[in-house]
Amino acid sequence: MSRVGRVERVTKETSVLVEIDLDGTGKVDVSTGVGFYDHMLDQLGRHGLFDLTVKTEGDLHIDSHHTIEDSALALGAAFKQALGDKVGIYRFGNCTVPLDESLAQVTVDLSGRPYLVHTEPEKMAPMIGEYDTTMTRHIFESFVAQAQIALHVHVPYGRNAHHIVECQFKALARALRYASERDPRAAGILPSTKGAL
Ligand SMILES: [Mn+2]
């Protein structure tokens, strides 16, 4: 059974199409109009081994906020859709990824409940190209709200803004991959004592 999600989200501010295949090979086709964000979504697909399409046309004449946020909302919704009934998956995943001087520690629980804990260095360059670095937390908030997962992201140290953000996306990709992969010992089993996820 294929685990795919497809979400089209159209508002007066943005038009977003997201397609994701959880059992892909990391084939990514992303264009949001925000170069650094494309680079981050590329990390997510590549290191998550998800096939991922994100096509966003947003109101970039204002700024990149709606474009970035709405893409993350649609991505979260598509991820949830692709997870389906969550039977036979690992459910939990974590990964620690360094990028030179920066380190990201990410833990996820595909719990069915949205919760975000996020810490990163306060002192960071405010912009990476057209990407406002305060958007990283906003992306995770948006993704978590729609995917309905618990996500904990910590960057205990780091100096370069590009590195600080990129290691978070790489670690998130791996953590999501481990959590969503099928556990061969748990075929047909829902990983919850409650009987629902
Ligand atoms: Mn917003």
TrEMBL record:
The pathway this protein participates in, as annotated, is: Amino-acid biosynthesis; L-histidine biosynthesis; L-histidine from 5-phospho-alpha-D-ribose 1-diphosphate: step 6/9
* Alphabetical UniProt keywords: Amino-acid biosynthesis, Cytoplasm, Histidine biosynthesis, Lyase
Q: Which Gene3D superfamilies match?
A: Imidazole glycerol phosphate dehydratase, domain 1
Q: List the catalytic activities from the record.
A: D-erythro-1-(imidazol-4-yl)glycerol 3-phosphate = 3-(imidazol-4-yl)-2-oxopropyl phosphate + H2O
Q: Does the keyword Cell membrane apply?
A: no
Its Enzyme Commission number(s) read 4.2.1.19
The protein's location, in the record's own words, is: Cytoplasm
Q: What is its main location?
A: cytoplasm
What the entry lists under SUPFAM superfamilies is as follows: Ribosomal protein S5 domain 2-like (SSF54211)
* Top-rank taxon: Bacteria
State a single Gene Ontology molecular function: imidazoleglycerol-phosphate dehydratase activity
Q: Which InterPro entries match?
A: IGPD_sf (IPR038494), ImidazoleglycerolP_deHydtase (IPR000807), ImidazoleglycerP_deHydtase_CS (IPR020565), Ribosomal_Su5_D2-typ_SF (IPR020568)
Question: What single Pfam family name could you report for this chain, choosing any that match?
Answer: IGPD
| Signal peptide, first to last residue | none
- Lyase found in the keyword field: yes
HAMAP family named in the record: HisB (MF_00076)
The similarity annotation says: Belongs to the imidazoleglycerol-phosphate dehydratase family.
Q: What is this protein called?
A: Imidazoleglycerol-phosphate dehydratase
In which organism is this protein found? Streptomyces phaeochromogenes
Output the lineage of the source organism.
Bacteria, Bacillati, Actinomycetota, Actinomycetes, Kitasatosporales
Q: Which gene encodes it?
A: hisB
